[in-house]
Amino acid sequence: MRLKNSHLLCLLLLLGGLSGCGVYSFTGANISPDVKTASIQTFYNNSPLGPSNMSVLFTEKLKDYFTKNTSLTLVQDEGDLQFEGTIENYTLTPVAPQANNTSGLSYSALTRITISVKVSYTNTKDETFNYQSRNFSFYRDFDQNSTNLSSEEQSFVEEIFDQIVLDIFNSSVANW
């Protein structure tokens, strides 16, 4: 009988310790139990360069990530967590210049695609986590001599957006 009580006590302590003050998931999200919804507005493309579908691609990636990694319900407007912003910049920059010995001309061995996204985040339940116009950016280097940008650009943009979405997630609900 005494052994049964000690097992029950250990089980209750374990369950109490796991419940904590908020809801924690294995994705790192630490979302208050009173937060139930999120609204993610369309992130418009203000960049003069880049693929024409960046706005839709980024917005859908952000929505998908929150749907898959939280128990929040996405709503059109006025969610408990609110995200809005713009794709601010898409740049191609040479990062590894090399000289061509035969003609004397210089060219770039590596080129960097950098995308910047400006985000405003509002937590209606706890304003201490809010931020306005925070810039998130990431890049992808490629060898333009062996990679055709027009055929690989979409996958590069998706890879960059994956990292930016993760950074936005961590800065908002994972509180990093």
Description:
The protein is of the alpha/beta class and 176 residues long. The chain has one domain: Double Stranded RNA Binding Domain. The chain is 33% helix and 32% strand. It comes from Imperialibacter roseus. This is LptE family protein. InterPro entries: LPS_assembly_LptE.
Structural descriptors:
single chain, about 180 residues, alpha/beta, six-stranded mixed sheet, 3 helices, LptE family protein, LPS_assembly_LptE
In the CATH scheme, what's the topology name?
Double Stranded RNA Binding Domain
Query: Which class of secondary structure composition applies to the elements?
Result: alpha/beta
Oligomerization:
single chain
CATH architectural arrangement: 2-Layer Sandwich
Q: What gyration radius follows from the Cα positions, in whole Å?
A: 22 Å
- H-E string: HEEEEHEEEEEEH
| Contiguous runs where pLDDT drops below 50 for at least 5 residues | 11-27
**Terminal CA distance:** 46 Å
Give the overall shape, derived from the CA principal axes. Answer: elongated
Q: Write down the CATH class.
A: Alpha Beta
| Assigned CATH superfamily | Lipoprotein like domain
Q: Bin the helical content.
A: 25-40%
Major beta sheet, specifics? 6 strands, mixed
